[in-house]
Every structure is written in C-alpha cells, then in structure tokens.
C-alpha cells in the first residue's frame, strides 16, 4: 500500500490534490471542477438538477412570461396583476385560503401534539400499531379523502348528522351553506393533515433525552412544569417545521374541494388552488391564472425559506 | 412483635408497601385509562370514514335510503362492485400501477446518485448547501403552480394524455423530495466502512454496491413505498394531463364517479375502497418502513 492511498481514502481526490497547484483563493466554481472526483460528483447531481429545471425554473420563468402577456399573446405588461387586485373572486379565494390556514394549522398542531404525547406516554400499549393507524390519512389521496367525507356529510347517508339527530337537533346540510361548508372542509383538512403534525412531533418527542425528566423529578418538578419547561423547548424546531408544512399543505388543497363542494355554494369555498384550476383549465385563461400562481408561489416561498432555514441552515451550522 | 415498636424500620415495610402500591396502581390505571380511551377515539376518528365508504359500497339501495343510516348493512349486495368493474375500473388501476411503479423506479435511479454525491464525495460545502436547499424548497412547491406552464408545454409538444408524460412528470415532481430524504438516510450511515473498503483497493462502485446499498436498503425501501404512494395518489397533475380512459389514473376515475344523483353512492364507494386498499395494506404490513420513510421525509438532515 502506498503512502498516497492511506492519505486519500477516496480515489481521485488525493492524487489530484497532491499534484495540483495551490488552490486559487476563493470561489465555489473553481473548487468544484478542480478534482476529477468532484467532476464525477457534479455529474451525478446534474440529472436531479435537470428535474429541478423542468419542475421549477422553467415553470417560473414561463409563468412570468404568461403574466406579462394576454391570452392572445400580446404584451400587456402588468395588466394581469392589476386586474387580479381588483378581482373579487380572487380576493374571496385568497381570504378563504388564509382563513383555512388560520383554522386548520392550530387545530392540526393541537391534535398532532396531543396524539404524539399520548402515543409517546408509557401507558400507550403497542406504539407501532397506534402509529400505523393514526398516519393512515396521510396516505389517502386528497380526492378520496374528500369523497369519503362527502358521504359522511351526506344528509341521509352520512354519519355526521346521526349524533345531531340523536340529540334532537335539526340535521345540518353541511355542504350547502357557506359557513357550514367552511367548517366541513376544515374538518376534512384536519382529518387529512393532522397526522403529519402527529408524526413530526412524535419524532421530535423521541429525541428528547429521558434522563432530564428523572433529574426534574428529583428536583420536584410537576409533570406539567416538566412538559412546559423541557419538552416544549426541545421539540420547538420540530414544531416550527410542522407549522410550516401544515400551512403549506392546507393552502395547496384542491382535491378536497373538488370532491366535496366544487367551490360551491356559489363561490363560497373557492380557495387559491381551485381558483387557479378554474381560471386556467375551465375558463381557459392560463395567462390570467398565472398571476394567481405568483401569489401562491410567494406564499409558499416565504414558508419554504423558513423551512430550509430551520432544517438546513441551523443544523449544518451546529 | 408489636407494630408500634418497629414503626419506621425495615420490618414494617411489607405491611405498608402494598397499600402504597395500590394507591399508585390506582392512579396509574386512571391515567392509562385516559390515554387508551383517547387513543381509541382517535383511531375511531381516523378509520370511520374508511369504514363508512367500505360498507356504503355493499349496502343495498334499501339500506342506503334508510334513515337514520345503518352502521351495519342488513342486506349486503355486490351490485356496486359489479357496476364499477363494468365501468372498467381495472384499466384505471392498471394505469395507476404502471405510472406509479415506473415513476418511482426512475425517480430513485436519478435521486440515489445525487444523494450519494451530496453526502459522500466531499463536494464544496456551499455547492451542496445550495443544491440541497433548492431541493428542500421544491419539495414544498405546490404542484399546481407548475401545472399551467407544463400543461402549455405539453400541448405544444403534443404529449398531453400519454402515460409516459405522466411518468416523466411524476418522476420530476418527486426527485427533489427523494434526494432530500435520501441525503438524510445516507448521512446516518457512517463512512468508515466504505473508506476501509476503498483503502483495501475496492472500486468506488464496488464499495457502494457491496457495503453502502445493503446498509441503506431498508431506508431505500421505505422511500420507494412512500414515493409509490405519492404517485398512486397524485391528483393535480393528472387533472391537467388526463383526457381519456387511456391514461386515466384512479384518483381521476374516482372524481368522475362522484354522483350527481343523490343515492348513487355505492359505485364511487367501491372505487374509493379500491384506491384505499393498497394503502391500508401498506400501512399495516410495512408500517415500520413507512413511519421511517415519512419521518425521514421531513426530519432528515440531522
């Protein structure tokens, strides 16, 4: 075995680095292509970068082009955007999306945290079974989830009205009125998304070292105190990630709406996704709909930047 | 021996301990009862829509019309199932299977080398950070945001309503997520073993094949299941790109079956049951892998 081999376990890199010139001062790109090994690495990454181009960069650039032109292909500048600011249907959709986020995110986090604590506690028997039951909604297609709940809300077939009738109340025709339809859709979303919060927070709880509780118990801390002062700070990063993901998931919902209300009654349950779909595909105004896409992208990017910050920047700098 | 004389010493402990234990046991049981009851309620809440759909598919018309709705069908019929098979649901299942399987495999073929390069090849940190950060961002991107440009591109190229278009799109849709998740998986495997193999004169590819792949296989498998389920459930892209029975995947078929007539729910219930069935099987047989994959999906990078 030669000396070089022991110095450089990874082939390519070591031999090159011995023979190569002293490195140029800075700069990612020069460094990137200096070693044969790095070139191979870049080559391996390129296909996935190409998918990024196809699924993200191309659509974004094309989107901007679409926004700046009319349906006939004429240059109209920012007309689409200014029309959007005056479009009351769009306002309704945007407000509906945000309203849904405001209701669904805290509900999902509460349900998720509660379930995570329960499954995590020593009293829950076989955790694996509970987990596999509780995460099932995550794996059900949006449209199927919406369809299932549409049956559940059905005035005669559905189960939701049964307890109401048993209590002597009037049965509610959930999906026919604006405010009950909003509640109904929020319930579907909580059913569908809260397992995500559960799963993340459960993973977070598993990372909390157990001995700190013993130490706290020796110091005479109550369970509540221990939860508040130790558990919560520990799972705070996971909590942030769960918040962002739940928000993103709830704003991008379309299958639930397509299956349950189709945006009705009237336009009471149009959300952003449904608006984009309706404008682009049903009313054939893809250029105008792209302006709404821009708004949605901005929302996601704000959430996404926070996400990457929490997941990537914080951890790698640790 | 008089009790009063020995109070506080070791001899009276057997007397007091059972009492203390009983009190403790009691408290313990109350808490346990609470936990278990709430968990059963949560399981009920999770499973009841699925149960409801499954029994709605075998209810007779009389049962469907019954008020209040029956929790157990009195007169199970298979009419709805016959109808759904007559409406060629198996073709939709076939389409979904083909698209989901191929897209999963291609996606892994693209993503595994990228994740390997990002974790094992000592690329400049900044480059990897940018790539991985972008991948994370894209995993959040709502698919509908890309749907319009891709649809217009697809119509220009004349490849709307083709299975291979769906396969390509599902592949690129999930690659970023797959790289992001796989990267976390790779980082969990220590590099020492591979380096030892490399020092012993193994080629890089040999080290990957003989050492790394067997080590990460369980995680790879869980990610594959996860990707398959994503593709199996994908709805938004299919909404834009499916025009005919030739490409119609299961979610779109189900949407098409949602009834206009008030009581025609048996058929769509049957379709929904078909769509959920593989997922349920996966949840119970592969749950260890699934939880792993799902958790990795978002918590990777530690």
| Span between termini of chain B | 63 Å
CATH class value of the largest domain in chain B: Mainly Alpha
**Poorly predicted runs of chain B:** 1-21
CATH class of the largest domain in chain A: Mainly Alpha
> Count of helical segments of chain B?
14
Discrete helix count of chain A: 15
- The global form of chain B is globular
CATH-level-2 architecture of the largest domain in chain B: Orthogonal Bundle
CATH H-level superfamily of the largest domain in chain B:
MetI-like
User: What's the structural domain tally of chain A?
Assistant: 2
| Low-confidence runs of at least 5 consecutive residues of chain A | 1-25
| Overall strand count of chain B | 0
Comma- or semicolon-separated keywords:
heterodimer; A: 318 residues; mainly alpha; MetI-like fold; 2 domains; 0% strand; globular; B: 302 residues; disordered N terminus
Give a verbal description of the structure.
The complex is a heterodimer of chains A (318) and B (302). With 318 residues, chain A is mainly alpha-helical. Chain A contains 15 helices and no strands. Chain A is globular. Chain A starts with a helix and ends with a helix. Chain B has 302 residues and is mainly alpha-helical. Helices cover 78% and strands 0% of the residues of chain B. Chain B is built from 14 helices and no strands. The longest helix of chain B has 44 residues, at 13-56. Chain B is globular, with a radius of gyration of 28 Å. Classes of the chains: A mainly alpha (318), B mainly alpha (302). At the A-B interface, helix 3, helix 4, helix 6, helix 7 and helix 8 of A face helix 2, helix 5, helix 6, helix 7 and helix 8 of B.
Lay out the secondary structure.
The complex is a heterodimer of chains A (318) and B (302).
Chain A: H1 3-7, H2 13-19, H3 28-32, H4 36-68, H5 79-86, H6 88-120, H7 127-134, H8 142-153, H9 161-166, H10 178-206, H11 211-218, H12 223-251, H13 255-260, H14 272-282, H15 286-317
Helix pairs in contact in A: 4-15, 6-10, 6-12, 6-14, 10-12, 12-15, 14-15
Chain B: H1 3-6, H2 13-56, H3 61-65, H4 79-86, H5 89-120, H6 125-140, H7 143-157, H8 163-188, H9 192-199, H10 204-233, H11 236-241, H12 250-257, H13 265-285, H14 287-299
Helix pairs in contact in B: 2-13, 4-13, 5-8, 5-10, 6-8, 8-10, 8-14, 9-10, 10-14, 12-13
């Amino acid at each position: 075995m030669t000396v070089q081999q022991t110095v450089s376990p990874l082939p390519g890199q070591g031999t090159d680095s011995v023979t190569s010139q002293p490195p140029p001062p800075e700069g990612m790109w020069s460094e990137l292509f200096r070693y044969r090994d790095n070139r191979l690495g870049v080559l391996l990454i390129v296909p996935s970068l190409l998918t990024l181009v196809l699924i993200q960069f191309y659509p974004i650039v094309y989107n901007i082009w679409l926004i700046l032109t009319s349906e006939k292909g004429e240059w109209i500048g920012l007309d689409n955007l200014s029309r959007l600011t005056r479009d009351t249907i769009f306002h309704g959709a945007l407000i509906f999306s945000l309203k849904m986020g405001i209701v669904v995110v805290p509900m999902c986090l509460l349900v998720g945290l509660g379930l995570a604590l329960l499954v995590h506690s020593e009293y829950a028997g076989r955790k694996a079974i509970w987990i596999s039951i509780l995460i099932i909604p995550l794996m059900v297609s949006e449209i199927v989830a919406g369809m299932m709940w549409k049956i559940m809300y059905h005035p005669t077939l559905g189960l939701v009205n049964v307890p109401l009738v048993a209590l002597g109340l009037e049965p509610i025709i959930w999906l026919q009125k604006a405010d009950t339809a909003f509640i109904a859709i929020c319930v579907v979303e909580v059913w569908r998304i809260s397992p995500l919060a559960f799963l993340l927070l459960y993973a977070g709880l598993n990372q909390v070292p157990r001995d700190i509780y013993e130490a706290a118990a020796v110091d005479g801390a109550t369970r509540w105190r221990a939860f508040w002062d130790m558990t919560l700070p520990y799972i705070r990063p996971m909590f942030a990630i769960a918040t962002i993901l739940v928000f993103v998931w709830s704003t991008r919902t379309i299958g639930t709406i397509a299956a349950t209300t189709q945006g009705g009654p009237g336009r009471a349950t149009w959300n952003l996704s449904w608006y984009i779909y309706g404008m682009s595909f049903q009313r054939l105004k893809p250029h105008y709909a792209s302006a709404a896409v821009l708004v949605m992208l901005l929302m996601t990017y704000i959430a996404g930047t926070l996400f990457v910050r929490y997941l990537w920047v914080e951890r790698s700098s640790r | 021996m008089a009790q009063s004389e020995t109070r506080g010493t070791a001899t009276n402990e057997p007397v007091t301990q059972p009492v203390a234990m009983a009190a403790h046991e009691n408290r313990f049981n109350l808490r346990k009862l609470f936990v278990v009851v709430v968990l059963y309620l949560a399981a009920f809440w999770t499973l009841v829509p699925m149960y409801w759909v499954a029994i709605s598919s075998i209810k007779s018309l009389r049962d469907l019309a019954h008020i209040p709705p029956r929790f157990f069908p009195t007169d199970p019929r298979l009419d709805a199932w016959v109808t759904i098979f007559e409406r060629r649901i198996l073709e939709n299942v076939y389409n979904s299977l083909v698209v989901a399987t191929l897209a999963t495999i291609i996606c892994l073929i693209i993503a595994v080398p990228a994740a390997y390069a990002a974790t094992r090849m000592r690329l400049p940190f900044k480059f990897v950070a940018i790539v991985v950060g972008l991948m994370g961002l894209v995993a959040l991107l709502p698919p509908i945001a890309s749907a319009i440009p891709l649809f217009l591109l697809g119509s220009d190229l004349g490849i709307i309503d083709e299975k291979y278009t769906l396969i390509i799109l599902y592949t690129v849709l999930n690659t970023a997520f797959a790289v992001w998740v796989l990267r976390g998986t790779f980082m969990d495997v220590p590099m020492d073993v591979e380096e030892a193999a490399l020092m012993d004169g193994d080629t890089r590819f040999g080290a990957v094949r003989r050492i790394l792949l067997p080590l990460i296989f369980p995680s790879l498998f869980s990610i594959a299941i996860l990707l398959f389920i994503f593709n199996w459930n994908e709805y938004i892209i299919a909404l834009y790109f499916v025009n005919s029975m030739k490409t119609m995947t299961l979610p779109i078929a189900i949407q098409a079956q949602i009834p206009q007539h008030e009581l025609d729910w048996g058929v769509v219930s049957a379709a929904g049951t078909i769509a959920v069935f593989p997922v349920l099987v996966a949840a119970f047989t592969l749950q260890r892998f699934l939880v792993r994959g799902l958790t990795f999906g978002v918590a990777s990078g530690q």
